[in-house]
Design goal:
This protein has 332 residues and is α/β, with parallel strands linked by helices. It has helices at residues 12-30, 41-49, 111-121, 140-152, 155-161, 173-189, 193-196, 213-217, 219-222, 233-237, 246-249, 279-291, 316-330, and strands spanning 4-7, 65-70, 77-83, 93-97, 124-128, 165-171, 199-203, 268-273, 296-301. The chain is built from 13 helices and nine strands. Strands 1-9-8-7-6-4-5-3-2 form a nine-stranded mixed β-sheet, with helices on both faces. Strand 8 (268-273), helix 12 and strand 9 form a beta-alpha-beta unit. Helix 4 packs across helix 6. InterPro entries: AB_hydrolase_3, AB_hydrolase_fold, GDXG_lipolytic_enzyme.
């Protein structure tokens, strides 16, 4: 078996437009203020809210509200940002996990995207405010996402939010956390995720935290690192002192690409841009997902970079529409 591979339609003229947009986007990222250039978390967070960080200026949804979930891994609460479809009974809950290399980003940065998805899928969109590195190294973020998912399967969530969990999805680091959360629900919570979840949507994720060769060679093109050394998101987020070698990071507890048991998992759609150095992660993860007996599709968007889901590019609307189609096809 092999995953259903969809090469998104793109004529020569449109491909040139997308390649131009990708070059412009990556050039602009070189001049953005990155986390490691700031003196504190507070300074970067302020810049992020003003649209002066890596992400665009956020627009906050006035109807969004917050639910606090107690952590089972500490004494903190995990904020969930909830956006409900307007004027109709929702058909389920979609847990969205934001990207940002485990270091930046927040649950409130992508309200426009989540509002769009809520209205078009008739799902309650719930974005989790997981703990960020380097203050909280992995697996802190994964622990918070697991707690969020477990809560969203509970009767309390049904009462407060109106429905329970059907989909999990995220972009970049959020795609990694989507896959890890799905696996941990199965392995640690003994949940039959193949039937409990209608599907998952990991978009341009990283699934080998030791970095596949394409990521290392393409690091400058991603624009997410200040130099060619190890000062990148992975080394900020991983408890590096715990590893004796890169082989340790390849263990499935950290890198889901090497999990030897991928059976019994829900349908998945893996989207990725052809110009993304992380493309190999999605190709390999989708292939292993399908080879383990699960349903998987891989959609490659020609001329498109990492991050296309949360910036305004030619490909963005098409990619969102593909997510909507995947979700609607699996709603019961």
């Amino acid at each position: 078996m092999s995953p259903v591979v969809k090469q998104a339609l793109c004529n020569a003229e449109r491909l040139q437009l997308r390649l131009l947009q990708t070059d412009q986007y990556l050039e602009a990222k070189k001049h953005m203020v990155h986390y490691w250039a700031c003196s504190s978390r507070e300074q970067y967070t302020l810049l992020e809210r003003e649209g002066k960080g890596v992400f665009d200026l956020p627009t906050y949804d006035p109807e969004a509200f917050q639910v606090l979930v107690p952590s089972s891994f500490g004494d903190h609460n995990i904020p969930l940002r909830v956006i409900q479809p307007r004027g109709k009974q929702a058909g389920g809950v979609f847990l969205f996990i934001h990207g940002g290399g485990f270091v930046i980003g927040s649950a409130a940065l992508h309200d426009n995207l989540l509002r769009d998805l809520a209205e078009r899928t008739n799902l309650v969109m719930v974005s989790v405010e997981y703990r960020l590195a380097p203050e909280f190294k992995l697996p802190a973020a994964a622990d918070d996402c697991l707690d969020a998912a477990v809560y969203l399967m509970s009767d309390e969530a049904r009462m407060k939010i109106g429905h329970t969990l059907q989909f999990i999805g995220g972009e970049s680091a959020g795609a990694y956390l989507t896959v890890q959360t799905t696996l941990r629900l199965r392995d640690e919570k003994s949940i039959d995720v193949g039937t409990a979840l209608a599907g998952i949507v990991p978009t341009y994720g990283i699934f080998d935290l030791s970095l596949l060769p394409g990521v290392r060679l393409g690091r400058e093109k991603v624009g997410d690192a200040p130099n060619k050394q190890n000062e990148n998101f992975m080394w900020l987020s991983l408890p590096v002192d715990a590893f004796g070698s890169l082989d340790e990071i390849k263990k499935s507890a950290w890198s889901p690409l090497y999990n030897v048991n991928l059976r019994g998992l829900p349908p998945a759609t893996f989207g990725v841009g052809a110009e993304d150095p992380l493309i190999d992660d999605s190709i390999l993860m989708a292939a292993k997902w399908e080879l383990a007996g699960n349903e998987a599709e891989l959609i490659v968007y020609p001329g498109s970079p990492h991050g296309y889901l949360v910036v305004d590019l030619d490909v963005t609307a098409e990619a969102i529409e593909d997510i909507v189609k995947f979700v609607k096809a699996r709603l019961t």
